[in-house]
Design goal:
The complex is a heterodimer.
Chain A lengths: L27 H5 L5 H31 L9 H37 L7 H20 L29 H30 L12 H33 L9 E2 L2 E2 L7 H35 L6 H14 L17 H27 L8 H24 L1 H7 L3 H31 L5 H28 L17 H33 L76
Antiparallel strand pairs in A: 1-2
Chain B lengths: L1 H28 L15 H30 L6 E8 L2 E6 L33 E3 L3 E5 L4 E7 L4 E4 L6 E4 L4 E6 L5 E7 L11 E7 L1 H9 L4 H6 L5 H15 L19 H13 L9 H11 L4 H13 L13 H16 L19 H13 L11 H8 L5 H13 L2
Parallel strand pairs in B: 1-5, 4-10
Antiparallel strand pairs in B: 1-2, 2-3, 5-8, 6-7, 6-9, 9-10
The chains are: A mainly alpha, B alpha+beta.
Chain lengths: ~600, ~425
């Protein structure tokens, strides 16, 4: 008996719900286009998200070209600059990161990791992707309407978002708001799938506390999404009504550009509260899946159980819960009642505690581990450096007084890029290098991976580290140009140019990753079913890539938690979740010719 | 405030270095080697609770002073003086309460070109409010002041980095910051909340000076009552003054390219007055490279006082509006996109000029003159004089017109406006 294992048991309870009936498509369109297989849907989400993400990446280059080399490029002017800023932000946060983590990774990994054949509502799941795609197309359409897309900042604050004086204040913002509303509808459909599948379709023996942290992260993030997105939905609808029907939810009586406005009685702060009630959980919707995934990456590639699994689960849940009561830390200088600052600074700094705990546990997982410096591990380590940095700068911004001089400066931009962009993207890359073999049966090329990692990691640090200094100097964000002040030294221009060069180089080098994805599909080293010797169920399928229905004749029973690595006395340094204690091979156990325990 | 920032910096800095070093140590020490195997320790509750406890202490050590400083930030001293900063796209202006110490009430419905602050005409408290319609605010050193923040259109943010305090201006509400300036000097004021295309050029200055100089400065501005009494210009007197100008600008103020004198008829009175004033005080026309501006400066000096300026401006404005001939060649199609994206917001969709945004009329004026002025703004030949209150904004804007072609395209489009 392996007493050494954390929670292994020979007993797996019987299957309560019975088998799920799946729709088996016969045609090419049915299998790969209108697919109800969560794995295909996941790939559809991922390709769409990455494609629109590349658009947003190019927009960021355009912004950086202006900031690094002001007044050099004739195709960049103060108006389209704001459009670049806005679309870059909105696409990255919502259409790339949220879609990729929940729609991409969620769809692929949830059924496999919980031991289900597919999501519980496969048709709804399929619809959710097509609605997401429609939302993306609506957003792209805003580039082609008169006036172009909205230039109000990704935060879309009224009154300026719907007034002349801001680009895209008519057709552009209408399409943006409609696109967001569509996105939310689609993600509610997807979200219901993820939550219910995790709660109801776990295979026998898979208790909630045996789920890998990837699932806990995605699960909690999905609950956050289901509760938070409605706030964005209503605020988008209210802004549309203000613009199109003359209501005054957010619009007070004003005189803009010499002309009296048509509205009276509204309050712009209402929008900000609604937006950030969504907006703060949104950042955790992106971060929590990243936290979960990186825990699994570190664990597998250090051959060591994640340290403090129970506390890690609690931390994810507590962070999720607390994320709903910190939103106004985005509004410290908004003009809201200043006494709110006391409350929100306190809750914000409290949320730092479970977050710090997670960081300690990742680090303690490395302690006395057996660290394989594989590409996924490199990216996981990159995540840790970036997140530690970004999380600590969050303490400046969370503390209300310290936040005031730093609000609306490049310090904020540097902070949120570190925690929302650099850290999660490290996880995205690490996760793709990790799960690509499961999806395709081949390993991604290691040489290309190393170049990709080092340029991305060092490059993104080179971009965002100096930016903190710019913020401390007082350089504001969303400024087309920062000429004409007396307190900003000329050397800032050199810093801006360096940041731009780093950004362009990092951007261009992502081509290596894209090339690797395609090249390795055809010429990559075959990986076998479980190249990383991981314990979770997705690696225990009979086929690689897994077929429709994921597992073979019967669903695997689960006998242990997801982290039995390097269990003392056991021959292999890992025990898959679906291996019962009686089948474990010990170092001194006689084995049959098949390598199983001789009884 | 600064101490809390430093404390946060040191606490986070130490944690950053310590944790990162530990990570590096682990990577090196526990890297996979032949025969190595990881330890198996699912959890260590005691250690985790210790870490939570220490973290809580560190967090509390930053939050506590932070909240005390915030209490200071929020509570305005009883003896603070009052000033109101008014933000609109894309300018700052200010209002002091005057002798009675009270600001008059305001409302959006009262705002027009003659009453840009929107002061309620029937509120007696407003009559003696001192109005500063340009972006430089002066404050007396050492005296606490509460800056009331009012926006007439969209969200803005009053931010002077050296003051550390900043706050959004929210239309429909009144917000505030308070401070006691402790250092003399001129500090840049920046808008810190995206407010449209002109956000990055919504600038001003806050000048901190000894009280006596501050009082002198303050008294040089009109009260609201005085601004409402401003006479309309006397056309007869204006015509007499204009005789001097006609020599270069033409009898009908139609302009004369050979003499480098632009068309003036059709231009807004407010703008003519402002430019004459600027020439007179040396805010314009003093730069070495401003060849033609330097010729204009002594001409403005022939107008002895503000009344004379008002009169001649009124007279010019009364002349019939002629159309200047189009001479500049450019791609009006490209110019149109650029104009609509960036210029129309201040100068009007048809280039007729908008007083509220300080954008003069461009339509049907001399195109060669527009080209010269755009170049002058771009190169800092015009608009950079410290006495020029509104020029710096245009100078900052023109900076992005980075070649002659773009300027020609823009002006070619302006020529098509009707």
């Amino acid at each position: 008996m392996d007493h050494a294992s954390h929670d292994a048991s020979d007993y797996a309870p019987p299957n309560e719900l019975g088998e799920m009936e799946l729709y088996h498509p016969k045609t090419f369109l049915g299998k790969y286009v209108w697919s109800q297989d969560a794995k295909v849907i996941a790939i559809q989400y991922s390709i769409t998200a990455i494609a629109i993400g590349i658009v947003a990446l190019v927009l960021s280059w355009l912004m950086r070209l202006q900031l690094g080399f002001p007044n050099t490029f004739t195709f960049i002017n103060p108006s389209n600059y704001l459009q670049f800023v806005t679309l870059h932000g909105m696409i990255m946060v919502v259409y790339l990161l949220t879609a990729l983590f929940l729609g991409g990774f969620g769809n692929y990994l949830i059924p496999l990791m919980v031991g289900a054949r597919d999501m519980v509502f496969p048709y709804l799941n399929m619809l959710s992707f097509w609605i997401y795609l429609f939302a993306v197309l609506l957003l792209c359409a805003s580039f082609f309407v008169p006036g172009g897309p909205t230039g109000s900042g990704w935060t879309l604050y009224p009154p300026q978002a719907i007034l002349e004086g801001t680009p895209g204040s008519r057709e552009g913002i209408i399409l943006m708001l409609l696109s967001l509303m569509c996105f939310i509808v689609g993600f509610t459909m997807g979200g219901l799938n993820y939550v219910v599948t995790i709660l109801q379709a776990r295979t026998r023996g898979m208790t909630m506390m045996r789920l890998p942290l990837t699932i806990w992260g995605i699960f909690t993030a999905t609950i956050l999404a289901l509760l938070a997105f409605p706030a964005l939905f209503v605020s988008a609808l209210m802004m549309l009504l203000d613009l199109c029907l003359g209501t005054s939810f957010f619009m007070p009586a004003i005189v803009s550009l010499g002309r009296p406005g048509e509205h009276v009685g509204g309050n712009p702060l209402l929008f900000q509260h609604l937006f950030w009630f969504f907006g703060h959980p949104e950042v955790y919707i992106v971060a929590l899946p990243a936290f979960g995934i990186v825990s699994d990456l570190i664990s597998v590639h250090a051959r060591k159980n994640i340290f403090g699994y129970r506390m890690m689960v609690w931390a994810i849940v507590i962070i999720g819960g607390l994320s709903f009561i910190v939103w106004a830390h985005h509004m410290y200088v908004s003009g809201m009642n200043p006494y709110f600052g006391f409350f929100f600074a306190t809750t914000t700094l409290i949320i730092a505690i479970p977050t710090a705990l997670k960081v300690y546990n990742w680090v303690l997982t490395l302690w006395r581990g057996n660290i394989q410096l594989t590409i996924p591990m490199l990216f996981a380590l990159g995540f840790m450096f970036a997140f530690i940095h970004g999380g600590l700068t969050g303490l400046f911004l969370g503390n209300v007084t310290v936040s005031v001089p730093l609000s609306d400066t490049m310090f904020v931009v540097a902070h949120f890029h570190m925690v929302m962009a650099v850290a999660p993207i490290m996880v995205v890359f690490g996760a793709i290098y990790h799960w690509y073999p499961k999806m395709t049966g081949r390993l991604l090329n290691v040489k290309m991976g190393k170049i990709h990692f080092w340029v991305t990691f060092l490059g993104t640090y080179a971009i965002y580290l100096p930016m903190h200094y710019l913020g401390f100097l007082g350089v504001p964000r969303r400024y087309f140009a920062i000429e004409g002040t007396s307190f900003i030294p000329d050397s800032v221009q050199y810093l801006n140019a360096t940041i731009t060069m780093a950004a362009l180089i990092v951007g261009v080098f992502q081509a290596i990753f894209l090339y690797n994805l395609v090249w390795s599909y055809f010429r990559g080293e075959p990986s076998g079913d479980n190249p990383w010797k991981a314990t979770t169920l997705e690696w225990q399928t009979e086929h690689t890539p897994p077929i429709h229905g994921n597992f073979g004749e019967s669903l695997p029973p689960v006998y242990r938690w997801a982290y039995d690595f390097s269990v003392p006395g056991v021959k292999e340094d890992f025990i898959p979740q679906n291996v019962a204690p009686k089948d474990v091979v010990y170092e001194n156990t006689p084995t049959t010719p098949h390598g199983t325990r001789a009884s | 405030m600064d101490q809390t920032i430093s404390l946060t910096f040191w606490v986070t800095g130490i944690v950053f270095v310590a944790v990162n070093l530990f990570v590096v140590f682990c990577i090196v020490r526990f890297r996979q080697k032949k025969g190595s195997r990881a330890a198996y320790e699912p959890e260590n509750t005691k250690l985790e609770w210790w870490l939570v406890g220490l973290t809580t202490l560190a967090i509390a050590s930053m939050l506590t002073p932070g909240l005390f400083v915030w209490a200071n930030f929020v509570n305005v001293p009883q003896d603070a003086a009052i000033v109101e900063a008014v933000g609109k796209q894309w300018h700052w202006s200010y209002r002091f309460p005057g002798q009675d110490g009270k600001l008059g009430t305001t409302d959006a419905k009262y705002i027009n070109d003659q009453n840009p602050f929107g002061i309620n005409p029937s509120d007696p408290n407003g009559k003696d409010d001192i109005l500063i319609s340009h972006p430089d605010l002066h404050l007396p050193i050492g005296k606490p002041v509460k800056v009331l923040l009012r926006s007439v259109d969209v969200l803005h943010n009053f931010a002077v980095p050296q003051f550390r305090a900043k706050m959004d201006l929210v239309p429909g509400t009144l917000t505030y910051i308070w401070l006691t300036p402790t250092r003399e000097g001129a500090f840049d004021l920046l808008c810190n909340e995206l407010c449209g295309v002109g956000h990055y050029v919504m600038r001003g200055k806050v000048v901190v000076q000894p009280e006596a100089e501050f009082t002198t400065w303050l008294n040089s501005f009109p009260t609201y009552a005085q601004t409402q009494l401003e006479q309309k210009g006397d056309l007869q007197l204006g015509k007499a003054s204009y005789a001097v100008c006609a020599a270069c600008h033409g009898a009908q103020a139609e302009g004369n390219q050979a003499l480098n004198a632009p068309k003036l008829n059709g231009q807004g009175e407010w703008y003519l007055r402002r430019q004459l004033q600027n020439y007179k005080i040396g805010a314009r026309g003093t730069h070495d490279l401003d060849v033609f501006g330097k010729m204009m400066a002594p001409m403005a000096a022939t107008l002895p006082d503000a009344a004379a300026i008002t009169n001649v401006s009124a007279y010019i404005n009364s002349l019939p509006d002629t159309r200047a001939p189009a001479m500049v060649k450019g791609n009006a199609g490209k110019g149109k996109d650029l104009f609509n994206a960036t210029c129309s917001v201040c100068h009007g969709a048809t280039g007729m000029g908008v007083q509220a945004t300080n954008g003069p009329r461009l339509q049907a004026m001399n195109d060669w003159y527009l080209v010269t002025q755009l170049n002058n703004f771009k190169k800092g030949i015009r608009g950079n004089n410290p006495k020029d209150m509104h020029g710096p904004q245009m100078s900052n804007v023109a900076a992005f017109l980075n070649d002659d072609q773009i300027i020609n395209d823009l002006v070619a489009y302006i020529n098509t406006l009707r």
